[in-house]
Carboxypeptidase
Amino acid sequence: MFSRATIFVFHLYLSSITEAATLPNDESGSRQFSPRKSTFITTKTLPFIVNGSALPDVNFDIGESFSGLLPIDDTDKELFFWFMPSRNPSSNNEITIWLNGGPGCSSLYGFFREQGPVLWRPGNFAPTANPWTWVNQTNMVWIDQPVGAGFSQGTPNVTSSEEVAIQFLAFWKNLVDLFGLDHRKVFITGESYAGQYILYIAAAMLDQHNEKYFNVSGIMMYDPSFGWYDLAMQPIFIIEAPLVVMIHSSPTALYFHRGPLPLVPGLGPDGKVTSECDIYNEIYLANMELNPCFDIYEIGKLCPKPWDVLESPEYYNGNMPPNFEPYFNRTKVKAAIHAPLDSHWELCTSRPVFTNYTDLSSPSGITGGPLQRVIEATNNVVIRHGTMDMILMVNGSLLTLQNLTWNGVQGFSSPPSKPFIAPKATDRIAGFSGGSRVLGLWVQERGLSFCTVELSGHEVPAYQPSAAFRQLEYLLGRIDNLTIAGDFVEDTWLIEKGRPVDQMHDHPIEDC
Ligand SMILES: *[C@@H]1O[C@H](CO)[C@@H](O)[C@H](O)[C@H]1NC(C)=O
Ligand SMILES: *[C@@H]1O[C@H](CO)[C@@H](O)[C@H](O)[C@H]1NC(C)=O
Ligand SMILES: *[C@@H]1O[C@H](CO)[C@@H](O)[C@H](O)[C@H]1NC(C)=O
Ligand SMILES: *[C@@H]1O[C@H](CO)[C@@H](O)[C@H](O)[C@H]1NC(C)=O
Ligand SMILES: *[C@@H]1O[C@H](CO)[C@@H](O)[C@H](O)[C@H]1NC(C)=O
Ligand SMILES: *[C@@H]1O[C@H](CO)[C@@H](O)[C@H](O)[C@H]1NC(C)=O
Ligand SMILES: *[C@@H]1O[C@H](CO)[C@@H](O)[C@H](O)[C@H]1NC(C)=O
Ligand SMILES: *[C@@H]1O[C@H](CO)[C@@H](O)[C@H](O)[C@H]1NC(C)=O
Ligand SMILES: *[C@@H]1O[C@H](CO)[C@@H](O)[C@H](O)[C@H]1NC(C)=O
């Protein structure tokens, strides 16, 4: 299944010499820089090496990486991973996982659209290097899971997120052993339905009490699914509901409320909206009539809908060239990343990854569930939320949190109100794609941090990459809080190019 490729070692060695040669002089004026030696190349990892200059259609070197399938157990079940070590020395004892949601979406979305080394955005002619890749800060691994999603292999058979976690942990142990990633701090990040996976996986890891493999040190979730699903979708529309009246007329009341919050009317005991109260769909359909390109993942989108190299052609209602194939489903691409050539890669699979399309686990964010446990064990749980997302909404997520008790107290004592400041990029290209200054509001209490991200849809690192880059610094403990002004901590531009940091930024607003 994997092509043997010993010669790649040579290539990687050469490419690191070339990179080292572009570094500025050191203090002694000598141009002797030791090329970074990969600590990950062993006989066991050779079959997984990706030739960073040979990714089809990508005309630059993406750097050192490894990808392929690893088993869960001795059956046909395997998960697909793509691992990229960081060049940042502060990351030596870390490993950060990224998971997309769905259920059933491939985490290669994150790799190609959010925090990976390559961006191929909708409508773009060709891929470009991602100046905001999280690999600049830490060691990243993108994983297609559960079985059934992306390039993962085998027959899906899970019925709950607890079972997803069992399979993930078995795979994770194999990955850690393969690359020698033991005794590292494990950070788990992701978005959307991964809010369910991340918390069940993190809780299961913590339950192992095994710091060799499972030293969970924090998690970060974007626009997560973690409460009663329809609660996060419906409440802003049900304007007469007592709970919502309370939020709008007296937000403070919500922040002093004690005891379980009542469900909004129209929701059954399972948290699902009854069909006669389904205001969400009414609003969605009305929006679609006004704007046929309306997108619940980013409510600002207008026509035309740009083509997307990751989407299947059916998504375009006949508006794609006849032989169009999604990037990761192309044979050359599969061969380059050690994915099975006969696999059928879809951005999000329509086949069930949970038996009968049903995750029998409770929402991860209710009292007594894994969110509470993970906060109490790590005191480093980070939730971020785009304000232009309509599939999961900021206030719905805050309602779920106001109903949760963690570290002995219910909810936050105030709404998110401290300014979240993203520094201005010192690199011109990065500056064109990442916003700066006040990009949201945050609150942090008892180990849980919540922050809104303005001008962002559902996939925050895709819409506001500079915000996500700063928030990763927070998760990893490089900065104390999100109000700190000043440059990015790992300002690789400075390190790489040896030029002074642009001083034209971070004026306090009062200066004007
Ligand atoms: C990696 O790919 C590049 C571009 O296709 C090629 O020139 C180079 O020989 C490859 N390196 C190895 C070690 O195969
Ligand atoms: C799913 O399959 C695995 C074997 O790959 C088995 O160990 C597990 O018990 C199965 N789970 C369920 C819920 O059937
Ligand atoms: C586990 O992570 C914590 C920080 O979250 C660190 O203090 C501790 O040393 C780590 N343990 C091991 C065995 O690496
Ligand atoms: C969310 O709730 C706050 C009060 O806590 C309110 O000011 C704001 O308008 C609400 N946002 C939306 C989009 O409904
Ligand atoms: C609040 O939590 C309780 C259980 O602790 C649950 O019964 C109730 O439905 C929840 N309310 C909301 C608004 O989520
Ligand atoms: C994806 O690849 C599989 C295997 O080659 C093929 O059967 C399928 O038709 C492809 N899907 C698309 C949308 O091109
Ligand atoms: C899935 O659905 C079938 C048919 O309705 C049912 O027999 C089976 O028990 C269901 N399985 C689970 C795990 O809910
Ligand atoms: C943020 O952290 C800095 C120290 O790094 C501290 O001076 C400042 O008060 C903190 N701000 C908030 C709002 O917590
Ligand atoms: C990440 O590193 C690359 C290569 O060193 C650099 O071009 C890019 O600007 C860096 N981005 C950030 C945000 O540091």
